[in-house]
Amino acid sequence: MSIANGQIPGWILNLLVPGLGHWYWKEYAFGLFTYLITLLATVLFVASFFITIPAPLELLMFALPIVFYAFTFVDVSRTSRLKRKTIRRSDRSLLILVICGLGYQVFAPVAPLNFIIRNRPEVFVQPNNDLSPRFSKGDLLKASRLSYLVTVFAVDRPILHTLPRRSDVVRFKTDDGRRLSGIVVGLPGEHVEITEGTVYADGIPDLTAASTHLRLEGHLPLTAVDDYDILVVTLNLGAVNSVYHVPLVHLIGKVENMF
């Protein structure tokens, strides 16, 4: 029996493009319906970054399409068993559809793979021991974009969904295009200073750094943080070296170990 007339092709096509497995077996109406359901779920996913949705409703909105999509794989198997006796598909036609499905995943703004490509982490090697003991020279690290930002279709700039926390290690772009890693000490709208290794935000000491095994030596005079910036310091041998007012749109991501 040709590979093209088995169950697996339908699963592969349905995985690449929801509903394509049914189109492969000429069930065009149900295939289109499947695609529209997943497209609606994608639109709701994007909308959830702009509006606050109660947790139970959000769970229901996303759980139902996922359950339905899982069911379509079962239905594709049933369809292939019934229709392979009357409809013959060639390996060539399967290959063409697989190539089209892969193209959809890479280039279609609503496709999961396209979303992953848009929001992939930046991978880099730590060049020194300035962030020790959390990260050491030679560590393979990633700047996880999705920790703070998400890029979605129909929006021309990244969407900030979560503010960094104080003492997060972040990677960011400087005004002259350099990419640096540093520690968040100030959040939007705060007045921050560092005295004897303690960060004071609006006059209140913050002991978060102690719980993350980081101690900021040195001194930072009282500094105001703009409403759309964060204050990030880079270190040199554990001491505050440079201070950067980082616009939120210049955040690359949260620094974490790659593995």
The number of domains is: 2
Point out poorly predicted stretches: none
User: Total strand count, please?
Assistant: 13
Return the string of H and E elements: HHHHHHEEEEEEEEEHEEEE
CATH fold type of the largest domain: Umud Fragment, subunit A
> What is the overall number of helices?
7
Describe the structure in your own words.
By secondary structure, the protein is α+β, with helices and mostly antiparallel strands. The chain folds into 2 domains: 3-118, no CATH class; 122-257, Umud Fragment, subunit A, CATH 2.10.109. The protein is built from 7 helices and 13 strands. A hairpin with a 5-residue loop joins strand 5 and strand 6 (179-186). Helix 1 runs parallel beside helix 5 and helix 3 (28-47) packs antiparallel against helix 4.
Question: How is the secondary structure organized here?
Answer:
Elements: H1 8-16, H2 20-24, H3 28-47, H4 55-83, H5 91-107, H6 112-118, E1 122-125, E2 140-144, E3 149-150, E4 159-160, E5 169-173, E6 179-186, E7 191-195, E8 198-201, E9 204-206, H7 208-211, E10 220-224, E11 229-236, E12 239-247, E13 251-257
Antiparallel strand pairs: 1-2, 2-13, 3-4, 5-6, 5-13, 6-11, 7-8, 7-10, 8-9, 11-12
Helix pairs in contact: 1-4, 1-5, 3-4
Q: What keywords describe this structure?
A:
13 strands, 7 helices, 259 residues, Umud Fragment, subunit A, 35% helix, alpha+beta
Short description:
The protein is of the alpha+beta class and 259 residues long. The chain contains 7 helices and 13 strands.
